[in-house]
Design brief:
253 residues; mainly alpha; transport; MetI-like_sf; MetI-like; cell membrane
């Protein structure tokens, strides 16, 4: 029954996407201004024409920014969440700063990073870190805080070491929230990489999209954007599969 519900859900989503693309195609053909409003078929043809330069040159550059930024965010976010959970004073000092940091428009800071680091990969990585750091930190911290007090008392009564309490209680309790943060962060990493490349880069899907815009190539602008969406979708599915594998107990009924 559950499998049938999931199939119907995917079928409904696929049908909606199909009709949206069909409407887009018809509207683009009616407008007939491909440099402003390209159709899905024109974008697909452009992706085929540019597959070599997009897939083998610009996609690896964007993927590198995403993975490095996401890895740094994961390490820093989990470490900070553990420290805030351990030290109440640190939580009271850092948590408001985390909230305030999300009110600053990253696109306004990106040019500053380019000024500091030039067109190197690190200016784009820093933008990605700033965007992805928050959901990982906050979700992991919330997961740690949701640890059962009764189980914690039982561990202490049983004489468990601090390391055992961390690895056997806190981390398993925080894993579902951590993966929720990672699923948000991996989609945001696409945005962070694209913003960084749009404002200053020599390679990458965001850079290529901006270059096509200066040439008034509407399909060329959309082609790398489609690849960015594909990267985000693949990343989300990989995190979901990893979550399912590591948290199988949540799916046992």
């Amino acid at each position: 029954m559950n499998t049938k519900i999931k199939f119907n859900r995917w079928l409904s989503a696929g049908g909606l996407i199909f009709f949206l693309l069909l409407g887009w195609e018809a509207s683009a053909q009616w407008v007939n201004q491909p440099y402003l409003f390209p159709s899905p078929s024109q974008i697909f043809i452009k992706m085929i024409d540019l597959h070599h330069v997009l897939f083998f040159v610009h996609l690896p550059a964007t993927l590198s920014v995403m993975l490095i930024g996401l890895f740094c965010s994961m390490i820093l976010g989990v470490a900070l969440a553990l420290c805030m959970n351990k030290f109440k004073t640190l939580e009271q000092a850092i948590y408001p700063i985390l909230i305030v940091s999300q009110t600053i428009p990253i696109i306004a800071l990106a040019p500053v990073f380019v000024l500091w680091f030039g067109y190197s990969i690190w200016s784009k990585v820093l933008v990605t870190i700033l965007i992805t750091f928050f959901p990982i930190t906050v979700n992991t911290f919330d997961g740690l805080k949701s640890t059962s007090k009764e189980q914690l008392e039982w561990f202490k009564t049983a004489g468990a070491s601090k390391r055992a309490i961390l690895t056997k209680l806190y981390i398993p309790s925080a894993l579902p929230s951590f993966f929720s943060g990672m699923k948000v962060a991996i989609t945001l990493s696409v945005i962070g990489a694209a913003i960084g490349e749009w404002l200053g880069a020599n390679a990458g899907l965001g850079y290529f999209s901006r270059r096509m815009m200066t040439q008034f190539d509407g399909a060329g602008v959309f082609a790398p954007i489609v690849w960015l969406s594909i990267l985000g979708l693949i990343g989300f599915l990989l995190i979901t599969l990893l979550e399912y594998y590591l948290l199988k107990w949540r799916h046992i009924k």
